[in-house]
Write a structure and sequence with these properties.
By secondary structure, this protein is of the alpha/beta class. The protein has 2 domains: 7-38 and 295-413, Aspartate Aminotransferase, domain 1 (Alpha-Beta Complex), CATH 3.90.1150; 42-278, 3-Layer(aba) Sandwich (Aspartate Aminotransferase, domain 2). Helix content is 41%, strand content 15%. It is built from 14 helices and 15 strands. It is globular. It starts with 6 loop residues before the first helix and ends with a helix. The structure holds pyridoxal-5'-phosphate.
Length: 414
């Protein structure tokens, strides 16, 4: 049994959402650059800093508490990504840093003339680390193109992923167009040619259930600050690969397990906050009929999140379709919301994205203009230098906020 999200109850858990702007609550459509955070996440971070603060690996009480917390956090994240081994979860500063780290290690196994495949749809954090690593190793770098509707060209992908390909790196969903990519198919194409797959799930993570076992990838990265947690990056990788790869590490650091990949002292308070973010989502799942057990609860949470976000996205796309001069990037059809996340970017024939973002900020709608680092995509679609205006919706948003923002746009564009 699934019940619908109680948005009012959800919103009460996020103190940031109560922020006033003029005579109303501010609208946080800047979410793809970082979500708001429920109080339980901040409380977990305060607990770690004020009561359990110590480096890990010691014999005394606070160090033991920190070790136990990190262990629990790995278990929470492995439930969140749908893996089965907590030692496959690596914490780091952010997704970009972890990706550079992994690229550096993988490149040591590459040979001159081999091929690395990236896409024209991705955030640059999933492009430049591979471009630089390929260059250093003397590998050929190719890009899967995008079609005019911002979707990935799968025929092109099948042609480009050849026998000498070592890695295919792609996003699970675009942080600019919101388009969901054919992750399973791309992983299959990589595997069929003996290549590894790396999935950037940063944009996907707050919107859709992650299940690395079903996706079939070798590595996957996400960022807790996009799924209601603090600023922390997460890398999941197959245990055998994490064990056999030679990554940058100092001599006294562990040689095995996830710790081998974590350079220097970890951000323990952010790890505590990330565990709390996963538990927040699990509680959300229980509130809509999910079981006590965390994985099942997360399944329910994302079922409810998807349903709620699709309704919001449909209303937003319908409203934008009625605004003359507006062109949505990617899937604009309100009947195709299942193929995209509720992240909607658009341009206007006359008014630049930056002007729109400034005017919306004055109306207390927080949102981003520009390329949001999806530089390959804005370049491929001819959207540089101004980029797009991006409205990013999450499960804590309401139909009232969508209607208010559309009314502001109607006024601004009149
Ligand atoms: C799709 C996507 N990938 C990667 C990143 C980079 O993540 P981080 O800030 O954790 O390095 C972002 C950040 O916006 C993103 O949206």
């Amino acid at each position: 049994m699934h019940s619908a999200l109680d948005t009012a109850a959800v919103r009460r858990q996020f103190p940031g959402l109560a922020r006033r702007g003029g005579d109303r609550q501010a609208v946080f459509f800047d979410a793809p650059a970082g979500s708001q955070v429920p109080a339980v996440v901040a409380e977990a971070m305060v607990q770690q800093l004020l009561h359990d603060n110590a480096n890990h690996g010691g014999v005394f009480a606070t160090s033991r508490a920190t070790d136990a917390m990190v262990h629990d956090a790995r278990q929470a994240v492995v439930d969140f990504v749908g893996g089965d081994d907590p030692e496959e979860v690596v914490f780091g500063a952010n997704m970009t840093t972890l990706t550079f780290h992994l690229a550096h290690a993988l490149a040591r196994t590459w040979r001159r003339g081999e091929r690395i495949v990236v896409t024209d749809s991705d955030h640059d954090a999933n492009v430049t680390p591979w471009v630089r690593a390929a260059l250093a190793a003397g590998c050929e770098l190719v890009r899967i193109p995008v079609r005019a509707d911002a979707s990935l060209d799968l025929d092109g992908a099948a042609r480009l992923i050849t026998r000498d390909t070592r890695l295919v790196a792609f996003g699970a969903a675009s942080n600019l167009s919101g388009t969901i990519h054919p992750v399973v198919r791309l992983c299959e194409l990589a595997r069929a040619q003996g290549a590894l797959s790396f999935v950037d799930a940063v944009h996907w993570a707050p919107h859709l259930r992650l299940q690395v076992d079903r996706l079939g990838c070798d590595f996957l990265a996400c960022s807790a600050y996009k799924f209601f947690g603090p600023h922390l990056g997460v890398l999941w990788g197959r245990r055998a690969l994490l064990e056999e790869l030679d990554c940058d590490r100092v001599r006294p650091a562990p040689r095995h397990g996830a710790e081998k990949w974590q350079t220097g002292t970890a951000n323990f308070e952010a790890i505590a906050g990330t565990r709390a973010a996963v538990d927040y989502l699990a509680r959300l799942g229980r509130s809509v009929g999910g079981p006590a057990e965390r994985r099942g609860a997360l399944d329910h949470a994302f079922h409810a999140i998807e349903r709620h976000e699709r309704d919001l996205c449909r209303a937003l796309l319908q409203g934008l379709a009625d605004l003359p001069g507006v062109r949505v990037v990617g899937i604009a059809d309100p009947d195709r919301v299942a193929e995209r996340c509720a992240t909607v970017s658009f341009t206007h024939e006359r008014v630049r994205p930056a002007e729109l973002a400034t005017a919306l900020a004055q109306a207390h709608v927080h949102c981003w203009a520009g390329n949001s680092y999806a530089l390959a995509l804005t370049t491929a679609l001819g959207l540089e230098p101004d980029g797009v205006l991006r409205l990013g919706l999450l499960h804590y948003h309401t139909q009232e906020e969508v209607a208010y923002t559309l009314a502001q746009l109607r006024r601004l564009l009149a």
